[in-house]
């Protein structure tokens, strides 16, 4: 589904998620494996496995497996259960910086309204 609108915030393209049952089952199984490895890591940490060189390497490997498993869970969830949405965004000019407004592109007076300049320096998103 796409729209022909070109104003800021319009949805340009929307593709619904596949939501496959296979991905849901895989996420559940990976979550169970994740819980088992987190339990193993916690057990090893509480029993002092990290005090020896071999145990420390073992705990590091288990922690690496935990994060890799979590990465696969998040990858499957993002690919199968989140829709692909493209919205129209406001295009920025090359000279624009995050804190520069269009009326201030050539700078401001040195000491004119110094209190407002101080507030903007302390809090950049200050609005009038």
From TrEMBL:
Sorted alphabetically, which keywords does the UniProt record give?
A: Membrane, Transmembrane, Transmembrane helix
Show the stretches that span the lipid bilayer.
21-46, 58-77
* Protein known as: Uncharacterized protein
């Amino acid at each position: 589904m796409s729209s022909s609108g070109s104003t800021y915030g319009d949805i340009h393209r929307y593709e619904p998620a596949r939501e496959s049952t296979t991905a849901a089952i895989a996420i559940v199984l990976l979550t169970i494996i994740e819980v088992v490895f987190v339990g193993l890591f916690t057990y090893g940490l509480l029993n002092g496995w990290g005090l020896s060189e071999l145990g420390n390497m073992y705990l590091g490997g288990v922690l690496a497996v935990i994060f890799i498993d979590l990465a696969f869970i998040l990858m499957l969830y993002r690919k199968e259960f989140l829709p692909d949405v493209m919205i129209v965004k406001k295009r920025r000019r090359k000279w624009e910086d995050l804190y520069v407004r269009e009326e201030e592109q050539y700078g401001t007076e040195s000491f004119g309204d110094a209190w407002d300049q101080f507030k903007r320096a302390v809090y950049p998103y200050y609005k009038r």
